[in-house]
Amino acid sequence: MSKPGKICVWIMACILFVAGSAAAAETVIVKGSTTVLPIAQAAAEAFIKKNPQINVSLSGGGSGDGVKALIDKTTDIANSSREMKKEEIALAKSRGVKPVEHRVAIDAIVPVVHPSNPVQDLTLEQLSLVYQGKISNWKELGGADKRITVISRDTSSGTYEAWSQKVLHNAKVTPRAQLQASNGAIVQTVSRNRYAVGYIGIGYLNRSVKPLKVNGVEASPRTALSGKFPVARPLYMFTDEKPKKAAADFIRFILSPEGRKIIEKTGFVPLK
Questions:
Q1: Less Cβ crowding at N or C end of the chain, within 10 Å?
Q2: 60 with 182: CB under 8 angstroms?
Q3: Domains by residue range for the chain, with CATH
Q4: Tens digit of pLDDT for each residue in 38-94?
Q5: pLDDT tens-digit series, residues 125-160
Q6: What is the pLDDT of residue 36?
Q7: Of 100, 77, 103, 94, nearest in space to 244 by CA
Q8: How many whole angstroms separate alpha carbon 186 and alpha carbon 256?
Q9: Are 264 and 222 in contact (CB under 8 A)?
């Protein structure tokens, strides 16, 4: 995706919660993963009701963008749907940032198709071949005799990296794939194309798309937490070793019993 496109997506994803006097309020800046964004948004709404002296500024853009912002000291919290890479940690430390990992939830990455698609279940191997372009017609999978439109996240996405590792085993995605910058964009694209397939975080599932089973296993909080669903992964928030007090309070709130209930309501799986 072009740089202007990314900027546009970032602006659309940006949400600002304002409470109390702007002059007196302290602001917690949160950037990164669009997968983690619904959790952060719902938690922020509850958090500022309890702490009206604090503002929470939220924006998406992808896990890579969030990690980069933490390294550049332009965010207090980096949302990420993947672990930080060794080279990112080394770069952060060279700039005086000591990243601390906070696991906040478990997510299932769910393959989705148009509701009219008769296909119900795909194996990991079939998904891998589809995304490599080696299976290109739904007829090979029990569907219509139509070309498969492959929808994928772009390379700045932690969801893309998890899909690449768990499904593609780091093989290259077909050059025919249409790249999208967010989970929401994939939902919208698949819902409008009868022959598309995409993948999204479980919290983004709605009736406009149909989830597929993987290896016969349905994506659910129970199967994601148990590890039975084969494309599940943790979700993270990263801070500096010594975050400002408001940021530390926000993290504690998300990890509290109230925060875990909020995570569950967003459709993701809270950690016990």
A1: C
A2: yes
A3: 3-106+234-270 (3.40.190.10), 107-232 (3.40.190.10)
A4: 999 999 999 999 999 999 999 988 999 999 999 999 999 999 999 999 999 999 999
A5: 999 999 999 999 999 999 999 999 999 999 889 999
A6: 95
A7: 77
A8: 31
A9: no
pTM equals: 0.81
For helices 245-255 and 37-50, give the axis angle rounded to 10 degrees: 110
Q: What letter represents residue 229's amino acid?
A: F
Contact present, 262 and 42 (Cβ < 8 Å): yes
